[in-house]
Q: What sequence folds into this?
């Protein structure tokens, strides 16, 4: 059973940075499509960034130029580097994975982490 564990969230001031990490248990990301989503309260969970199995990234408009999605060479950890954070970036951030390409379609991702809270004031 695949499990994803996020970490790195916290409370920061506007303009500061955070780096989120997502670690899988029992496997490496290797050929999986990986993504970061975020959710505020009861609002719909929205896409932040996607990294396909070929390591090609895709970003939502709000994250372009500020956020960077990447994974380490071993495929052990997925990252989301977030710079120049703003209050509107406050949300619970989730990593997701699937062997199929998911893009922004949440329903395609079979595996999800438990989320990590990011608060920007």
A:
């Amino acid at each position: 059973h695949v499990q994803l564990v996020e970490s790195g969230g916290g409370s920061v001031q506007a303009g500061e940075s955070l780096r989120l990490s997502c670690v899988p248990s029992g496997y490496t990301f290797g050929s999986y499509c990986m993504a970061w989503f975020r959710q505020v309260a009861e609002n719909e969970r929205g896409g932040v960034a996607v990294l396909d199995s070929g390591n090609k990234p895709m970003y939502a408009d709000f994250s372009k130029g500020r956020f960077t999605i990447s994974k380490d060479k071993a495929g052990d950890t997925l990252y989301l580097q977030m710079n120049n954070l703003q209050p509107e970036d406050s949300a619970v951030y989730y990593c997701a994975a699937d062997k199929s390409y998911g893009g922004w379609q949440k329903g395609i991702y079979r595996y999800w982490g438990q989320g990590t809270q990011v608060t920007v004031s």
